[in-house]
Amino acid sequence: MAGADRGGRDFGLHSRTERAAERARAQSAAVHPHERTAPRVRLDLPRPKRRGWLPEYDPEAFGRLSEKIARFLGTGRFIVWMTVVIILWVVWNVAAPGRLRFDQYPFIFLTLALSLQASYAAPLILLAQNRQDDRDRVNLEQDRKQNERSIADTEYLTREIAALRMGLGEVATRDWIRSEFQELVKELEERGVFPPESEEDDR
Fold first, then answer.
1. Under a CB-based contact definition with an 8 Å cutoff, are residues 102 and 93 in contact?
2. Compositional bias of type Basic and acidic residues: which residue ranges (predicted)?
3. SS3 assignment, position 101
4. Are 110 and 90 in contact (CB under 8 A)?
5. b/e for 173-193, b at 16 or more Cβ within 10 A?
6. How confident is the model at residue 6, as a pLDDT?
7. Cβ–Cβ under 8 Å, residues 196 and 189
8. What separation in angstroms does the CA of 154 have from each of 23, 39, 76, 137, 151?
9. The pLDDT value given to residue 171
10. Whole-prediction pTM value?
11. d(CA 29, CA 10)
């Protein structure tokens, strides 16, 4: 009987536990699906970057490459090489046999190539100039702050030097002490405290 009673109590305990678990599962299922799957939004963290349709690239690396190209386009070596290529292009398409010419007069392909080169060169040069302007702006800002610090230091040193001069003006110098002693000796001689020095004493 005791075993049966214990078994019945255990069965009742297990059934109550199962019913509580089923109620918890039902309450969690009643929650809106979006609320269960949505991540917690935190304001102290930046939002994750969304993936776009355009390919990603490093703007700094592209800017450095554009500056290198713009520097090369602004050199005399580029002008010389471009002139040599154009001369060879024209001479080949004029003097070469007909079946070897790839750009007949009026050299439409050469015009297209030069136009394409100019259309890419202009934005690259503008990008390099913008980066240089940004660097110049940063350097000017740093120079302005450095000048402000230098002016503040100079004003502080000027005030300190003026304070030292005012303090030195109140310090007793050796000449001033000597003159004061001489005046004191003259005053004592006039009062007769001790006789003045005579020529016989000097002898």
1. yes
2. 1-25, 32-41
3. coil
4. yes
5. eeeeeeeeeeeeeeeeeeeee
6. 46
7. yes
8. 79, 57, 47, 25, 5
9. 66
10. 0.45
11. 29
